[in-house]
Structures are given as C-alpha cells and as structure tokens.
Amino acid sequence: MPAADCPEGNYGAFLMDNMPLIRSLVEKLACNLQVPVSCKIRIFPDLQDTIAYARMLEEAGCSLLAVHGRTRDEKDGRKFRADWDAIREVKKSVRIPVLANGNIRHMEDVHSCLEHTGADGVLSAETLLENPALFAGFRTAEWRDCGNLDESKNGEDGGLDQADLLEEYLKLCEQYPVPWRIVRSHVHKMLGDWFKVHPEVREEFNRQSKLTFEWLHDMVGKLRNLGGRVPLYANATSTWKATENGFPMSSS
Ligand SMILES: Cc1cc2nc3c(=O)[nH]c(=O)nc-3n(C[C@H](O)[C@H](O)[C@H](O)COP(=O)(O)O)c2cc1C
C-alpha cells in the first residue's frame, strides 16, 4: 500500500479508514493474480485494531505482511520510534510471514529487531538513502557508537565511504537512466556528511542547473582531493568486508 499522505485519493495509509475496501482490494488481487499478494501497513494507536487489521489481510489472501511500526500520524521517523512491540504482537497473531519496518539504521538494529519482534525479515528505507551499504554491515558516523557492540569491535574504518557508493550509484544511473532530480537528491543524501565538511562544494553543486555524469565524477574527485574523508564504519567481526573496488564480499 503506497505512501501515507494521500487523503483525497483514498489510498496509502488513508485507506485505514475503510477496512471493507482494503479487504475487497486484497481479495480481488489474491483471487485473480498468479503471483502472491503482499501488503505493507502502518499500525493503529490501539494494538487490538492493528491485530484485527493484520488478521483481516491474512484472511483476504495476503501472503506476506510488512508492518511499519508507526501510526500514520507519526510521520517523522527520527522523532517517533517504531513500535517493535506492536510488530511482535502482529507476528504472533498471523501465520503468514511478517517483515518488520522502522528504525533499522545498521546491522545491530537488524539483529535486535528480528530478536525482539520474531519477524521473518526487516525493511529499511530512510537510512538506505544515505548508506546503501547498510545490509553489508557498514554504518555511517552518525550511528558509529550506537548499539551494544563490544567497543573494540565497533566503528573501524570499513575501507568504504559514501563517495564510493555514490560513484557506484552514478554508474548504475548511466546504465539505467533516471530523472536528474532523483540523482540530485541521492547526491545530497549520500554526500551530506562530506558537504558538511566542504559546504563550498555543495554550493557549487546546487548552482549547476544542468548536470552531467562527467561533472559529478569530477566533483567527487574534487572532494577527495580536498580531504576530510568521511568513512563508513564496519564491525571487524562482520561477515562482510569491502573489496578493493568497494563492492562488499563475504569474509567468512
Ligand atoms: C524515498 C522513500 C520512498 C518511500 N515510498 C514508499 C511507498 O511508496 N510506499 C510505502 O508504503 N512506503 C514508502 N516509504 C516508507 C518506507 O517504506 C518505510 O515504511 C518508512 O520510511 C519507515 O522505515 P524507515 O524507518 O526504515 O525509514 C518510502 C520511504 C522513503 C524514504
């Protein structure tokens, strides 16, 4: 079920006001499609309502349920912690696989979320925008000291940084074109920490009304020459390590 901010369109989380309509949509899809139907929901303020919602979806034919542990009014992910207790109760109430969503910022969160909720998997969104290497075991400086890891194993330079990830992303964009406004916002997300160190480069970037891949690769080179590298951190015992080309590979 798509984005939360579409009241007049009667879709996204605003469908939560109309359970019979959701039921009929899922039933129709499940009856007529050859592929399994998955749903993604937000929680209600009342746990029993959330459980009833999840059970209704299961009955209607949903085969996989992702639960974002925030209500539809809790829009700011940094302000509102996702309710992992509610996700755990949903997981206990249905037989279909459940994916937990909300507050996954690094692999430590993945493990604690799976343990806490009993979910079958996790989803992450906001953090991936700035750190697409999250599931390979890397974390940004912001989350370096967060979690219960043994300090000696926590926060070592993982040999990878956000500029490496951006370069990989740019190569993919050349291969699979996307609108420049999307590229622009990903550059801001991935280079945000570097731009804080060198705001003049950000200003120059913002002044470019027309971008090219060549210009962007040059900008990354310029940032590297200016120094102040902001690494991504990895746990030394992580099963994932960066290779020379920046792609992660299993070390075990
Ligand atoms: C760029 C972006 C696009 C998103 N698009 C959708 C969407 O189309 N449908 C949806 O249900 N949720 C969408 N979300 C919400 C996320 O799937 C997720 O539920 C939410 O961000 C909470 O997870 P997080 O705490 O890991 O960010 C989007 C989030 C982001 C950052």
TrEMBL record:
Keyword NADP applies: yes
Keywords assigned: NAD, NADP
One Gene Ontology term of the molecular function aspect: tRNA dihydrouridine synthase activity
Q: Where is the DUS-like FMN-binding domain?
A: 2-210
Which Pfam family is an annotated match for this chain, by its short name?
A: Dus
Matches recorded under PANTHER family = TRNA-DIHYDROURIDINE SYNTHASE, TRNA-DIHYDROURIDINE(16_17) SYNTHASE [NAD(P)(+)]-LIKE
Q: What is this protein called?
A: tRNA-dihydrouridine(16/17) synthase [NAD(P)(+)]
Species whose genome carries this gene: Iris pallida
